[in-house]
Write a structure and sequence with these properties.
Layout: E1 15-26, E2 29-37, E3 48-49, E4 52-54, H1 62-69, H2 77-94, E5 99-101, E6 104-105, H3 108-123, H4 129-136, E7 139-140, E8 146-152, E9 161-169, E10 183-189, H5 191-199, H6 207-216, H7 222-231, E11 240-244, E12 247-251, E13 262-264
Parallel strand pairs: 1-9
Antiparallel strand pairs: 1-2, 1-4, 2-3, 2-10, 5-6, 5-7, 8-9, 11-12, 12-13
Helix pairs in contact: 1-2, 5-6
Length: 271
Amino acid sequence: MTDSKDGQPAARSPIPSSTILLLRDGPAGLEVFMVKRHREVDFASGALVFPGGKVDRRDADPDLLERARTAMPETDEEELCFRIAAIREAFEECAILLCRRGGRLIGATEADDIAARHRDRLNAGAIGFGDIVRAEDLVPACDLLVPFARWVTPVNLPKRFDTWFYLAAAPEDQVTAHDGREAVDSVWISPLALLREAEAKRATVVFATRMNLAKLGRSATVPAAMAAARADRIVTVMPEFGETPAGPVLRIPLEAGYGVSEVVVKDIPRP
């Protein structure tokens, strides 16, 4: 990282990343799938988070992009890469495979068989998602993902991400399972119930996750959440640090749709 002209360290470029909010309707309403990060990972260790991670260079595999484009022919390469990364992360971390074969969404038995053949090698980095797609003649169902939010880590923090958040209805006949490596536990939970757990200090939830849980919690069902996301305009959020008489705050754009522009947060990381 080089210094800027005024002698201050230049901002690090954010790493392109994707996060997927897998949704289902439970007995009491909308639920979202959360994984608990291993305490040894380099981001949000020990926290409950939505599955996700960095966009891999192999997510831009030309054949993988061409297959993905059949579901979204007008979509540019950059957006396809973000969506492919979200689908890959769902498979890596949750064993959910949002792909079609022969025009039909993969079912539970097929997903289990594909996972048994490929998931360990994918998680180990020995193969890319494109290798699985070719071997199994799959088409990534990028059209099933609905953009929900975009967050960029504040300037001058040591590690920065440019993250797209996507909603997707979990296939009814596929079973979620955390990977046991980066994610050591998992749970289906109401967004508002998890916020209450975090408020009571029974769960660790980072700021961006907390804000997106609150936004998601406005919807009572999966169809309602998907419809609300489709109707929303995505406004990129890059929180800014501030000080107020009430304590340190993070400021976000009011037009991003979270209902607030300033949130008091304790123990926030500082540049």
